[in-house]
Write a structure and sequence with these properties.
The structure holds two protein chains of two kinds. By secondary structure, chain A is of the alpha+beta class. Chain A is 18% helix and 25% strand. The chains are: A alpha+beta, B mainly alpha. One iron/sulfur cluster (SF4) binds next to α3 of chain A.
Chain lengths: 188, 322
Amino acid sequence: MAKAYRLIFDENLCIGCQACNVACRLENDVPEGVYRLQVHVTTQGVFPHLGMHFERRSCVMCDEPPCVSVCPTGASFQSKDGLVHIHESQCITCKYCILACPYHARFINPVKNVVEKCTFCFDSRLSKALDPACVSVCTTEALRFGDVSQENSTVAMLSRKETLLFPKAHLGTKPKVCFIPARKGVKV
Amino acid sequence: MSPMWGSTAQYEVMHWSWAIAVYLFLAGISAGSIIVALLVKWNRHERSNSSIWDAMIKSGTLVAPVSILAGLFLLVADLGRPLSFYWLLIRFNPLSVMSLGVLFLLIYTPIVLVFTLLVFERTIVKYTWLSPLGSFIEWVKSLHSYAKTIEYFLMAAALCVGTYTGFLLSALYAIPLWNSPVLPIVFLTSSISSGIAVNILIGLVFFKSTINTESIKYLLVLDLRVIMTELPLLGIFFVGLLYGGGEVSSMAKAALSHGGLALVFWLGVIGIGLLLPLATVILALRSHVYRVGYILTNATAVLLGVLLLRYYIIYAGQIYLG
Ligand code: SF4
Ligand code: SF4
């Protein structure tokens, strides 16, 4: 049966330590200056009522990916599990997909001169039934990953319990990455 | 909100640069000049061989293949991996406007070349060093009986090429300033106006035709009509964005008011490209002074304006992402 992967990022648990970011760089050999994944940390509010905001930025693995539909060569494609990948050899680096992605998740790998993005560590980990590197190192368990079609998986249980936000949901891209928003607002 | 940690450099890269703007301009010129040449060919009444109309047909058929080939070269050269471009030819994604564009160009470019050969047949036959091409020319001659059909196909293909450059951008809903249904119409209109301008320019310079007051007046009126179509279209385009709500509105506002890019729009696209030609045309038509100089100035200004419009749209879209 096809998988229904989901990655949940809990902003309430994140402390902005960037362990996930570093793990991703090591796992996927991401060159300096570009990111498959980073957590943007910002301060909000007016002193003394300050709060931190953590925003996880990466490919959100759309179920309806615009990057795939615009690719003229089929280099960007969707697997039967709904994951979006890139055939490096067929990519002509026309950059159309980079512009089409509403999450600005794609970039050009300056070393290989080819388009790249998060793959959920498919080749090196996921295909061997291991969680993506970012999930496996998260110090506070703010990242959870699994198959929501499996009733008793952590992500399925979390999905039933929590209010999930899907980034730019109004675009109809149906992301597989979602987040649990901070419960504590900043008092202004 | 103060940023504390996180790099945004990756989001500020201009993935499509001036090369794409120039390609869109060249593809537009090619389609526009052939559309205008065909319209003139079908509609002009007297069949004298030295009129400005004849010169416009000749320059159209000359400009179209040169500019589309130059544009295609630029397009391939701008790919991150130019040598892999053959994937574009062996793969086809019907959902991708880029794939559709490749298809249109593959149909359009050969027909343009054949049409050019047909129009310049007499000239080609004159040059003996081209005689190895003899059998080829014979073949082209045999196409004469299909001339009309070829012309209709060419018109359709040129309309596709002129419009697809707009859809290429407007298909991306990730980019608020591009994702407008008006953009393809704006691009088609401005490519027709660049076609008129370039045909007049090349026609006057290279095919020294007899210029009489009548034809100058006609060309000026033609100019006027195009400008009066383009101005309101650009207006509709931006009003649509400004009323788009949310980030679409704010991005459009910023693109029209911030920095050097806004200057490119107001000074270059509106000022030089539209208002300057409009003023000269109105002045000339009012005072009944028809000078060749007016036409040449107008044509150059229009071309510059059309190029700057492409440049502005390409960069503004990528800078004001929301
Ligand atoms: S987030 Fe962007 S790169 Fe990832 S699947 Fe969606 S559109 Fe494609
Ligand atoms: S850059 Fe590569 S993956 Fe992206 S649209 Fe072009 S060919 Fe496809």
